[in-house]
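Notebook entry, structure prediction.
Reason for the run: the old model in the group folder had no record of what sequence produced it. Starting over properly, with the input documented here first.
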Amino acid sequence: MEFDWKVIIDYFPDLLAGVKVTLSITILSLLIGLVFGLALALARISGWKIISWPAYVYIEFFRTTPPLVQIVWFYFVVPVIIGMELSAFQAASIALGLNIAAFFGEIFRTGIQGIDKTQIDATRVLGLGSIDSYRYVILPQAFRIVLPPTTTTIMLLMKGTSLATAIGTLELMRVGQLISLETFRPFEILTAVALIYFLITYPVAYGMRRLERKMQIGEI
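New structure, fully documented this time:
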């Protein structure tokens, strides 16, 4: 079987459109995950059971249930509950964002608790309030600790966007499937899809590794 480059060239604009949707889902989900994940981490270490216990339940639920189930649930069930339609893009972005928030919550919690307690005591001696202590002392140091697992989690999120295919989101994988069915050339199209995933994820992984090295040697 010969590899037909022409079919890839002909349908490249469609694949590129799928890439744009994939990146859009990734960015939106990542923003949701980072913000909500930090909130979950702070709730977990707050010492107040009224917020730490619900945060714990949330994290364990979203970490132990399949993201595919969560995406499908958000698409078909949430509109019934809230009485408002969600597009496939919206459902996938929210579901993946809330899913990844659970993982970020544990990553951030571990990073914050990994800070030497003397650092926290020092902020109190200096008269810093809780917000300033986290802003200027705790979170910057925790960032160095959480960077490696955060990078891995972002990679998983970018690849996990392909699960949105289940609800018809026109992201890269879904577009590749439709083109394969139309052209009867899955070998070329799905190979191209795999290569495109590599091309959009590897630069992120490489950039994060560079950032990690710079932080380790104190360049930033």
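Summary: Residues 5-44 form the longest helix (40 residues).
The old model has been moved to the deprecated folder.
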